[in-house]
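Researcher: I'd like a candidate sequence for this fold, 1037 residues long. If you have to choose between options at a position, lean toward the conservative one.
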């Protein structure tokens, strides 16, 4: 390298670090002054490599002090410039480079504050790394410059140059500390032992951090490899991954990805790059691929963004994407078989939704009761609609003929009619699906005129509702006008379908709606036909690329169990509420069209593909997608969910859409104990195409780790899938068997000593998750309708691990005067009178006030200025719950209750009843649970033995009494009554009462029995006399 020139200018850009890092105050150090009191400036050179991170960690532990300020300097070379994206792709002015560097700096700054309590300043400078570092050292005059090495050999350092060597010889303003890499420091010799025995497992917080970064979590971070003779470790909890395609926020690379010529995988940080030969090796098929000419300047110091070590998730701009994409389409399908109040609530929410729709969007409206009405919103003069019979299915050709699409233009004689390009005119399409800006007034007028069904049902009949026909007509209309575009059918349903295809029950009220028992016994007459109808509808919508959303609000079932296949395969939303006026429905519908920080990030027309290493096969996906039936060597013979394919279609997806991929690890003839070979590294690459292609590559090495939360979520999805597809499946027995097998493999136990059982820290919480899973609504269908069970499982199958684990095991947070909000055990012992609890069960949020807090609130203490602490305590759980509500979809139900109140059951139903029911948590009521069966049986047997003992004592006493009755009369006459005293007429009433009281206390047991017997005889004797007199006084018939 050339020596540093004094007058050389560098382009630089300051990095704005997150505001979450508080400013570290200058410490008050007694008897210290000068440099130690003021703190020092320390420069740390960072990049995206592991050796740089090792030097950063060394500096925090061994060099930095509390008052220091570290300056993070990242040098960016500007020589790499692909010809198709311009000459400044690696310039500091490029947003892609800056965002990647900013993410790196933010992570390091947070770690510096957490570990060493030091503040950080970050800067990205364009230029040669050695010159940049020396220039920054001259500017800051730091106490030291700390940097790592790239681990090059002596020959490569001489030929290519070394940044550390350059700084060592040319930095005159500060001492240079060069931290050797891990391999140079001697860690390589113990890497094998650490992997096998003492390698520390990531905590659940670190797993959650990885999920936030890359959107993927896997139960097994050790890939279990079994031989053909042994039972595989993953027989109960398979090797799987829960992946959220749109979760990580990544910078957009403005060029197309570089693909392998053989397997079509994308260039990634785990590719083996040969800079001298300008080739890269694919980690999946091991094929060598040449770099194109625009990558000619690539080197180990000049890498493209997709080869940065932390670029495990990158996003590319598709070269085939057009500048004018079709607008989003919203087709509302409204049920009018509602009460007037419910229809008013629905109309009000639709007005709000229409106002939130972007003006460029396309809108349509269909209403139905026993007939289907398709409104022509492009006709502004009056309300115009076309009627269809609710008992008959309708094809696309019949629909187009009925709607007069070919009056002005002739109908094509052959081919598929699909959109403007294939047979339809834009003018005809705009009649029924116009832009929202053109039909605002017409749509509002139609909604105002929308009334309840004009065909009232008979007293012993249900309303005629043709839900299936209405959805079929909506699908055919979108398929003919906007095929392959971002279109959503939003159905608002208020009751069960009773007419036409897709009906779930007959109109007669004498026939009940199917239950879980009816479905299990195959005694639901309409269930199978309705499921088949919605399976065909799902195939049609998937082929067209459209989404079906269902918003159901009714106290009765509406058919969610039958519509589940159509909603799930198209990636649609489902919201289930009690009324259209409930906040769950109202706020959830508003959230769909909301834009800003908490928007859902709606995307459409997605295709999901996967590439795996050799020895790994894909069994299938459980989640919101549909199979594209792409066969290949990656497909396993055993299918789970949407299986036997390596590509899936995701018609609708958002930031929270997650899929569960299940893999199969090929068995080997001999077990591999040595894990240092390249064979034991498995690679997974997930490719998601929607409007531009997204590629993610994840390396899962054989490190010692087990993600308990991900394992519990995978188990819940598998149980839900098996319960729906296998009628004889026993979920409790399967979960218990999986837990027992897992504990027997990894637990430690001394025979004969039950207290010696111990699980590793990686598995310590997994039995607790299984305990709550067995009690959850996904396994226990009792007291839930088929619609509710289908609703719960659909939400489970589309949410990520963090949200799904809350559904399985709710979280409980305590709010008190003396401490910050903290999580507490999910147990009744956590309830206290002076405590507020917040239960998050995902579908329900419960704010529970203790008895003392409730009394203070009812007394109005929080309105008095001297009780601001109580005001803050009452407001804290509300703010906490508002944060959860703003981030969640569907919107959860909020319940605010008091201890001993009726709605406290929402909390008590989720708590572990460790008390006997007589404590303060229940107000004296009994708590029943289905757990601890053995202890309950033992208690029941003990109570039965006590009852038999009391009965035996009673029989003995009866025998003794009967013997006394058989004694001679003289003996009997000796026992007199307990009442011997005769009232004195001259004494007062209180004196006579006192004498009788003393007489009663001093009487013997035999005298009391005699008195009681005489009293009973008198009572029944008088009753007989009265009855005899009444019979004698009756007149003859």
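Model: Candidate sequence:
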């Amino acid at each position: 390298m050339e020596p540093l020139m004094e007058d050389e200018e560098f382009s630089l850009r300051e990095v704005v670090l997150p505001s979450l890092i508080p400013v570290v105050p200058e410490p008050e150090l007694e008897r210290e002054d000068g440099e130690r009191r003021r703190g020092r400036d320390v420069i740390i050179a960072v990049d995206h490599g592991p050796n740089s991170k090792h030097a950063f960690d060394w500096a925090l532990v061994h060099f930095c002090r509390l008052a220091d300020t570290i300056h993070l300097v990242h040098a960016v070379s500007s020589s790499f410039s692909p010809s198709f994206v311009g000459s400044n792709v690696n310039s500091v002015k490029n947003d892609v480079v800056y965002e990647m560097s900013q993410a790196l700096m933010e992570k390091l700054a947070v770690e510096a504050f957490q570990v060493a309590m030091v503040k950080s300043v970050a800067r990205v400078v364009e230029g040669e790394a050695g010159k940049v570092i020396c220039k920054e050292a001259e500017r800051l005059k730091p106490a030291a410059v700390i940097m790592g090495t790239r681990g090059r050999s002596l020959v490569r350092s001489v030929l290519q140059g070394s940044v550390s060597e350059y700084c060592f010889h040319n930095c005159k303003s500060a001492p240079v500390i060069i931290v050797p890499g891990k391999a140079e420091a001697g860690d390589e010799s113990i890497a094998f032992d650490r992997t096998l025995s003492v390698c520390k497992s990531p905590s659940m917080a670190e797993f959650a951090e990885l999920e936030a970064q890359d959107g993927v979590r896997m139960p097994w971070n050790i890939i279990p490899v079994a031989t053909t003779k042994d039972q595989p470790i993953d027989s109960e909890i398979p090797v799987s991954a829960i992946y959220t395609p749109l979760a990580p926020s990544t910078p957009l690379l403005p060029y197309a990805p570089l693909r392998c010529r053989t397997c079509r995988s994308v260039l990634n940080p785990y590719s083996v790059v040969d800079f001298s030969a300008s080739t890269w090796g694919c980690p999946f098929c091991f094929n060598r691929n040449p770099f194109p000419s625009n990558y000619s300047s690539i080197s180990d110091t000049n890498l493209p963004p997709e080869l940065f070590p932390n670029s495990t998730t990158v996003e590319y701009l598709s070269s085939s994407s057009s500048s004018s994409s079709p607008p989003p389409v919203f087709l509302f399908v409204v049920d009018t078989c509602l009460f007037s109040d419910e229809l008013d609530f629905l109309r009000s929410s639709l007005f709000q939704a229409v106002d939130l729709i972007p003006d460029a969007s396309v809108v349509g409206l269909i209403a139905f009761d026993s007939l289907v009405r398709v409104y022509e919103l492009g006709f502004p003069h009056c309300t115009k609609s076309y009627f269809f019979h609710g008992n008959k299915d309708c094809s696309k050709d019949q629909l187009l003929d009925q709607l007069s699409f070919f009056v002005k233009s002739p109908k094509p004689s052959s081919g598929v009619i699909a959109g403007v390009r294939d047979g339809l005119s834009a003018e005809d399409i705009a009649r029924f699906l116009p832009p929202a800006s053109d039909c605002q007034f017409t749509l509002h007028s139609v909604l105002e005129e929308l009334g309840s069904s004009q065909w009232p049902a008979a007293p012993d009949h249900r309303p005629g509702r043709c839900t299936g026909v209405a959805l079929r007509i909506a699908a055919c209309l979108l398929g003919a006008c906007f095929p392959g575009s971002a279109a959503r059918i939003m159905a608002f349903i208020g009751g069960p379908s009773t007419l036409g295809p897709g009906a779930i029950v007959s109109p007669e009220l004498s026939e009940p709606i199917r239950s879980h028992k009816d479905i299990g016994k195959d005694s639901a007459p309409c269930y199978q036909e309705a499921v088949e109808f919605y399976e065909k509808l799902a195939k049609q919508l998937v082929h067209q690329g459209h989404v079906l959303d269902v918003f159901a609000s009714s106290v009765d079932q509406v058919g969610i169990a039958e519509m589940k296949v159509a909603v799930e395969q198209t990636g649609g939303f489902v919201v289930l509420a009690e009324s259209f006026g409930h906040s769950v429905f109202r706020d959830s519908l508003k959230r769909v069209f909301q834009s800003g920080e908490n928007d859902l990030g709606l995307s459409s027309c997605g295709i999901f593909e996967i590439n795996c290493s050799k020895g790994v096969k894909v069994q299938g996906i459980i989640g919101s997608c549909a199979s594209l039936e792409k066969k290949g060597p990656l497909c396993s013979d055993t299918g789970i969910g949407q299986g036997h394919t390596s590509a899936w279609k995701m018609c609708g997806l958002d930031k929270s859409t997650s899929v569960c991929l299940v893999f199969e690890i090929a068995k080997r003839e001999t077990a591999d104990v040595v894990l240092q070979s390249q064979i034991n590294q498995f690679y997974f690459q997930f490719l998601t195409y929607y409007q531009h292609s997204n590629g993610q590559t994840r390396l899962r090495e054989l490190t010692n780790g087990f993600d308990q939360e991900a394992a519990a979520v995978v188990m819940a999805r598998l149980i839900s899938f098996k319960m729906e597809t296998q009628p004889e499946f026993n979920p409790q027995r399967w979960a218990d068997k999986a837990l027992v097998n897992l504990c027997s493999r990894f637990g430690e136990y001394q025979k004969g000593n039950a207290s010696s059982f111990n699980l590793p820290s990686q598995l310590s919480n997994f039995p607790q998750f299984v305990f709550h899973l067995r009690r959850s609504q996904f396994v226990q269908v009792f007291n839930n309708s088929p619609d509710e069970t289908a609703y719960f499982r659909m939400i489970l199958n589309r949410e990520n691990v963090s949200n799904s684990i809350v559904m399985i095991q709710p979280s409980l947070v305590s709010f008190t005067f003396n401490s910050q909000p903290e999580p507490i055990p999910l147990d009744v012992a956590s309830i206290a009178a002076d405590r507020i609890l917040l239960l998050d069960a995902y579908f329900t949020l419960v704010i529970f006030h203790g008895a003392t807090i409730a009394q203070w609130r009812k007394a109005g203490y929080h309105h008095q200025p001297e009780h601001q602490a109580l005001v803050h305590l009452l407001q804290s759980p509300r703010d906490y719950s508002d944060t959860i509500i703003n981030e969640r979809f569907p919107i959860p139900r909020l319940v605010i209750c008091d201890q001993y109140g009726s709605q406290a059951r929402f909390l008590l139903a989720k708590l572990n009843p460790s008390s006997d029911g007589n404590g303060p948590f229940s107000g004296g009521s009994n708590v029943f649970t289905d757990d601890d069966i053995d202890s309950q049986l033992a208690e029941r047997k003990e109570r039965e033995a006590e009852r038999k003992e009391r009965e035996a004592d009673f029989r003995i006493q009866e025998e003794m009494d009967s013997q006394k009755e058989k004694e001679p009369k003289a003996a009997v006459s000796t026992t007199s009554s307990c009442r011997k005293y005769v009232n004195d007429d001259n004494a007062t009433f209180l004196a006579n009462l006192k004498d009788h009281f003393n007489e009663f206390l001093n009487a013997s047991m035999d005298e009391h029995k005699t008195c009681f017997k005489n009293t009973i005889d008198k009572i029944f004797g008088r009753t007989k006399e009265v009855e005899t007199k009444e019979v004698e006084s009756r007149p003859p018939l």
